[in-house]
Amino acid sequence: MNWLYLSCALLGFRRSARSGCQAVRRRLGHSCPFWYALSLVFAILQMLIMRAVPAARWLSCAAAILLGLIIVLTILLLAPVNNRIARWDVGRLPTDWLSMRRHWDLFHRVRVLLLMVVLVLLILSVLLDRQGQLSSSRTLHSGTNLSQRFFLCRNRVSSPVTTIEAA
After folding, report:
1. 151: containing domain
2. 45, 28 Cβ separation under 8 angstroms
3. Confidence at residue 152, expressed as pLDDT on a 0 to 100 scale
4. Which of 43, 52, 109, 138 could be joined to 64 by an S-S link, Cβ 3.0–4.6 Å?
5. pLDDT by residue (tens digit) across 118-149?
6. Nearest Cα residue to 82 out of 111, 112, 105
Protein backbone atom coordinates (compact mmCIF):
# COMPACT_ATOMS: atom_id res chain seq x y z
CA MET A 1 0.00 0.00 0.00
CA ASN A 2 1.22 3.52 -0.72
CA TRP A 3 -0.32 6.96 -1.08
CA LEU A 4 -2.23 5.95 -4.18
CA TYR A 5 -3.91 3.06 -2.38
CA LEU A 6 -4.38 5.05 0.82
CA SER A 7 -5.94 7.94 -1.13
CA CYS A 8 -8.33 5.51 -2.81
CA ALA A 9 -9.28 4.11 0.59
CA LEU A 10 -9.66 7.51 2.27
CA LEU A 11 -11.74 8.89 -0.57
CA GLY A 12 -14.14 5.99 -0.16
CA PHE A 13 -13.52 4.07 -3.35
CA ARG A 14 -14.96 0.58 -3.46
CA ARG A 15 -12.75 -2.34 -2.64
CA SER A 16 -12.41 -3.29 -6.33
CA ALA A 17 -11.06 0.18 -7.14
CA ARG A 18 -8.64 -0.04 -4.22
CA SER A 19 -7.35 -3.39 -5.46
CA GLY A 20 -6.87 -1.75 -8.87
CA CYS A 21 -4.87 1.00 -7.18
CA GLN A 22 -2.82 -1.64 -5.43
CA ALA A 23 -2.12 -3.43 -8.74
CA VAL A 24 -0.93 -0.17 -10.30
CA ARG A 25 1.29 0.47 -7.28
CA ARG A 26 2.87 -2.96 -7.55
CA ARG A 27 3.62 -2.51 -11.23
CA LEU A 28 5.08 0.96 -10.73
CA GLY A 29 7.01 -0.15 -7.66
CA HIS A 30 8.68 -2.94 -9.58
CA SER A 31 9.41 -0.96 -12.74
CA CYS A 32 10.65 2.38 -11.31
CA PRO A 33 14.07 1.12 -10.13
CA PHE A 34 14.62 -0.44 -13.55
CA TRP A 35 13.70 2.78 -15.38
CA TYR A 36 15.83 4.96 -13.12
CA ALA A 37 18.85 2.70 -13.61
CA LEU A 38 18.28 2.52 -17.36
CA SER A 39 17.95 6.32 -17.54
CA LEU A 40 21.23 6.69 -15.68
CA VAL A 41 22.97 4.30 -18.08
CA PHE A 42 21.61 6.20 -21.10
CA ALA A 43 22.66 9.57 -19.63
CA ILE A 44 26.18 8.22 -19.12
CA LEU A 45 26.25 6.80 -22.66
CA GLN A 46 25.04 10.11 -24.04
CA MET A 47 27.81 11.86 -22.13
CA LEU A 48 30.39 9.50 -23.61
CA ILE A 49 29.27 9.89 -27.24
CA MET A 50 29.08 13.70 -27.24
CA ARG A 51 31.84 14.94 -29.52
CA ALA A 52 31.07 18.27 -31.15
CA VAL A 53 30.51 20.67 -28.26
CA PRO A 54 32.19 20.24 -24.84
CA ALA A 55 29.29 22.06 -23.15
CA ALA A 56 26.94 19.31 -24.36
CA ARG A 57 29.11 16.71 -22.63
CA TRP A 58 29.03 18.71 -19.39
CA LEU A 59 25.24 19.03 -19.55
CA SER A 60 24.94 15.26 -19.97
CA CYS A 61 27.36 14.76 -17.08
CA ALA A 62 25.24 17.04 -14.85
CA ALA A 63 22.13 15.10 -15.86
CA ALA A 64 23.80 11.78 -14.97
CA ILE A 65 24.90 13.14 -11.59
CA LEU A 66 21.38 14.38 -10.88
CA LEU A 67 19.93 11.00 -11.85
CA GLY A 68 22.30 9.34 -9.40
CA LEU A 69 21.15 11.81 -6.74
CA ILE A 70 17.52 11.03 -7.55
CA ILE A 71 18.15 7.31 -7.13
CA VAL A 72 19.79 7.92 -3.74
CA LEU A 73 16.96 10.27 -2.72
CA THR A 74 14.39 7.66 -3.67
CA ILE A 75 16.15 4.86 -1.79
CA LEU A 76 16.91 6.85 1.36
CA LEU A 77 13.83 9.08 1.69
CA LEU A 78 10.86 7.87 -0.34
CA ALA A 79 11.15 4.07 -0.14
CA PRO A 80 11.17 3.94 3.69
CA VAL A 81 8.00 6.03 3.85
CA ASN A 82 6.37 3.78 1.25
CA ASN A 83 7.37 0.70 3.26
CA ARG A 84 5.82 2.16 6.43
CA ILE A 85 2.63 2.97 4.58
CA ALA A 86 2.48 -0.59 3.24
CA ARG A 87 2.16 -1.87 6.82
CA TRP A 88 -0.71 0.45 7.74
CA ASP A 89 -4.24 -0.71 8.33
CA VAL A 90 -6.66 1.63 6.55
CA GLY A 91 -9.08 1.39 9.46
CA ARG A 92 -6.44 2.38 12.03
CA LEU A 93 -4.10 5.05 10.70
CA PRO A 94 -1.19 6.22 12.89
CA THR A 95 -1.56 9.55 14.62
CA ASP A 96 1.25 11.15 12.58
CA TRP A 97 0.01 10.00 9.19
CA LEU A 98 -0.54 13.58 7.95
CA SER A 99 3.01 14.51 8.87
CA MET A 100 4.29 11.44 7.05
CA ARG A 101 2.20 12.33 4.03
CA ARG A 102 3.62 15.87 3.99
CA HIS A 103 7.16 14.51 4.11
CA TRP A 104 6.48 12.08 1.30
CA ASP A 105 4.83 14.82 -0.80
CA LEU A 106 7.80 17.13 -0.27
CA PHE A 107 10.36 14.45 -1.19
CA HIS A 108 8.28 13.43 -4.19
CA ARG A 109 8.00 17.03 -5.43
CA VAL A 110 11.76 17.49 -5.09
CA ARG A 111 12.31 14.27 -7.04
CA VAL A 112 9.91 15.32 -9.81
CA LEU A 113 11.53 18.76 -10.02
CA LEU A 114 14.97 17.14 -10.31
CA LEU A 115 13.65 14.78 -13.00
CA MET A 116 12.39 17.77 -14.98
CA VAL A 117 15.81 19.44 -14.64
CA VAL A 118 17.43 16.22 -15.90
CA LEU A 119 15.10 16.18 -18.89
CA VAL A 120 15.92 19.80 -19.76
CA LEU A 121 19.67 19.16 -19.38
CA LEU A 122 19.54 16.12 -21.66
CA ILE A 123 17.47 17.92 -24.29
CA LEU A 124 19.84 20.90 -24.24
CA SER A 125 22.87 18.64 -24.52
CA VAL A 126 21.41 16.87 -27.56
CA LEU A 127 20.48 20.16 -29.21
CA LEU A 128 23.91 21.67 -28.54
CA ASP A 129 25.70 18.60 -29.81
CA ARG A 130 23.53 18.41 -32.90
CA GLN A 131 24.08 22.09 -33.63
CA GLY A 132 27.82 21.60 -33.16
CA GLN A 133 27.83 18.60 -35.49
CA LEU A 134 25.89 20.53 -38.13
CA SER A 135 28.16 23.55 -37.97
CA SER A 136 31.33 21.43 -38.01
CA SER A 137 30.06 19.36 -40.96
CA ARG A 138 29.20 22.57 -42.85
CA THR A 139 32.66 23.95 -42.15
CA LEU A 140 34.29 20.71 -43.18
CA HIS A 141 32.11 20.40 -46.26
CA SER A 142 32.55 23.99 -47.35
CA GLY A 143 36.27 23.78 -46.56
CA THR A 144 36.58 20.72 -48.74
CA ASN A 145 34.75 22.48 -51.54
CA LEU A 146 37.00 25.52 -51.24
CA SER A 147 40.17 23.46 -51.27
CA GLN A 148 38.92 21.42 -54.20
CA ARG A 149 38.10 24.63 -56.05
CA PHE A 150 41.50 26.07 -55.22
CA PHE A 151 43.23 22.88 -56.35
CA LEU A 152 41.24 22.79 -59.60
CA CYS A 153 41.81 26.50 -60.29
CA ARG A 154 45.52 26.19 -59.62
CA ASN A 155 45.79 23.21 -61.95
CA ARG A 156 43.90 25.04 -64.67
CA VAL A 157 46.02 28.14 -64.33
CA SER A 158 49.32 26.32 -64.00
CA SER A 159 48.79 24.00 -66.93
CA PRO A 160 48.31 26.67 -69.59
CA VAL A 161 51.10 28.81 -68.13
CA THR A 162 53.59 25.97 -68.17
CA THR A 163 52.66 25.04 -71.71
CA ILE A 164 52.97 28.65 -72.86
CA GLU A 165 56.28 29.08 -71.08
CA ALA A 166 57.55 25.81 -72.45
CA ALA A 167 56.72 26.81 -76.00
Report:
1. 3-166
2. no
3. 47
4. 43
5. 999 999 999 998 887 776 666 544 544 444 44
6. 105
